[in-house]
From TrEMBL:
SUPFAM superfamilies referenced in this protein's UniProt entry, alphabetically: NAD(P)-binding Rossmann-fold domains (SSF51735)
Source species of the chain: Caulobacter radicis
Entry superkingdom: Bacteria
InterPro entries linked to this entry: NAD(P)-bd_dom_sf, Sacchrp_dh-like_C, Sacchrp_dh_NADP-bd
Lineage of origin: Bacteria, Pseudomonadati, Pseudomonadota, Alphaproteobacteria, Caulobacterales
Gene3D superfamilies: Dihydrodipicolinate Reductase, domain 2, NAD(P)-binding Rossmann-like Domain
Saccharopine dehydrogenase-like C-terminal domain ranges (all copies): 141-388
Record-given protein name: Saccharopine dehydrogenase
Location of the Saccharopine dehydrogenase NADP binding domain: 4-137
Length: 401
């Protein structure tokens, strides 16, 4: 039975808090804090209606380390779950160190002025968390997160040696809107417009954004174009699994989404370079975010399924084997349960499970950890019990290039 402080009241924060409130044996008291308190209050109202659990809410600017430290000291949590934006990661880690509390997030730190998607800043906290006897768990969403746990599960139970790993992320959901991103638009567009990069034979191979694609028939969705992209879990998987010769990440996009993106890019709206507009400095991407629908408003509109998984090739008992581990999640079912669509659901549920792993002591350690470093079994069990069941399937052949 533990107290928890969740920071961030977007779609992911909303799902995580609803799921925590459904597990009061682990999460005995929940405080939800975010920049806009009214969003926390709206989530608290929904949590009370759906689960009968009352949670505390607070306003916080998590960029302010002193204010966040004071909030942690007054809320007295055993764990801070950071579901704000990647920009806040280091400030919240600093506040956790200042108040002696464990930390969890779902996305790696990003400076506002450069899209890097790398763990270097957070891995640099290793000694400080270790010396303080605290644990920081990085990337407890779906990807990174569940896909990293799928990889460790594959290595523990399905393959003696992994040679290649492909992560396939398909959102077959349709909002009926001409253009919307299914999680924070700024972070989503930064990811999609970054050069593609994958790990092969000990080095990173880079190419232009969205320049390589193939069709894959996703169960529950159908055939979709998926594009080779860089995604942050590639860095930690390459570090912790040096045996894997090639690691790639693929994400599906519809033609209309890509057409909008191309036009927005051509006119400069996806730029993160500050510019002067009518005497004021603005960042075009931030203006675009303000114009696009809030991901948390897409719940009632989205129909269809997500299908995210890992295909690994390697050897088991001396024989070649290819295994596909995946979860399929239905947008409308996710919305009925928590009031949020499946992209928020598939991130918020693993955030709750990662928090449960830490609070129950099933995962413990001192220092900074990525998901693939920890025992996959209790996490995989909780996925099955809490709305993200997974399957294992043998494939006849590896993914084509
Ligand atoms: P949203 O943009 O919907 O929500 C972010 C929330 O953080 C908002 O409530 C926002 O407040 C709050 N926030 C922003 N800045 C601050 C600040 N300085 N202080 C306090 N609160 C702040 O994002 P999502 O819910 O879609 O995503 C949340 C996180 O999950 C992101 O880091 C995202 O990258 C990550 N993610 C990870 C995935 C994975 O699979 N690993 C997949 C999808 C998302 P306000 O409303 O006032 O702006």
């Amino acid at each position: 039975m533990s107290r928890v402080l969740v920071i961030g009241a977007g779609g992911v924060g909303s799902v995580a808090v609803h799921k925590m409130a459904m597990n009061t044996d682990i999460f005995s008291h929940i405080t939800l804090a975010s920049r806009t308190k009214s969003k926390c209050d709206a989530i608290a109202k929904s949590v009370l209606e759906r689960t009968g659990v009352t949670i505390d809410t607070a306003a916080i600017d998590a960029d302010d380390v002193a204010a966040t430290t004071a909030l942690i000291k007054s809320a007295k949590p055993a764990l801070v779950v950071n579901l704000a934006l990647p920009y806040q990661d280091l400030a919240i880690m600093d506040a956790c160190l200042a108040s002696g509390v464990n930390y969890l997030d779902t996305a790696n730190y990003e400076p506002r002025d450069e899209a890097k998607f790398e763990y270097s800043w957070q891995w640099a906290y290793q000694d400080r968390f270790k010396d303080a006897g605290l644990m920081a768990l990085l990337g407890s969403g779906f990807d990174p997160g569940v896909t990293s746990v799928f990889t460790t599960y594959t290595k523990k139970h399905l393959l003696d040696r992994i040679d290649t790993l492909d992560i396939l992320d398909c959102n077959g959901g349709d909002t009926g809107l001409p253009f919307a991103t299914n999680f924070n638009p700024e972070i989503n567009l930064r990811e999609v417009t970054a050069p593609s990069r994958h790990w092969e034979s000990g080095q990173w191979i880079e190419g232009p954004a969205l320049s390589h694609k193939q069709v894959f028939d996703f169960e529950g969705v159908g055939p979709k174009n998926m594009y080779l992209m860089y995604h942050e879990e590639l860095e930690s998987l390459a570090k912790f699994y040096p045996e894997i010769k090639r690691i790639r990440f693929w994400m599906t996009f519809g033609d209309s989404y890509l057409k909008h993106l191309e036009v927005l890019g051509n006119v400069g709206m996806t730029s993160i370079e500050p510019m002067m507009f009518q005497g004021r400095e603005i960042i075009p991407m931030e203006l675009l975010k303000a114009l696009l629908p809030e991901p948390s408003s897409l719940g009632p509109l989205t129909k269809g399924k997500t299908n995210i998984g890992t295909i690994a090739t390697g050897e088991k008992d001396g024989k070649a084997r290819t295994v596909y581990v995946k979860n399929i999640c239905d947008h409308e079912e996710a919305y009925a349960e928590t009031g949020n669509q499946a992209v928020s659901y598939t991130t918020g549920v693993p955030a709750m499970i990662g928090a449960a792993m830490m609070l129950t002591g099933k995962w413990k350690g001192e220092g900074v950890f990525n998901m693939e470093q920890l025992d996959p079994d209790p996490f995989m069990d909780m996925l099955n019990q809490h709305g993200l069941p997974w399957t294992v399937e043998d494939l006849d052949a590896p993914l084509a290039f």
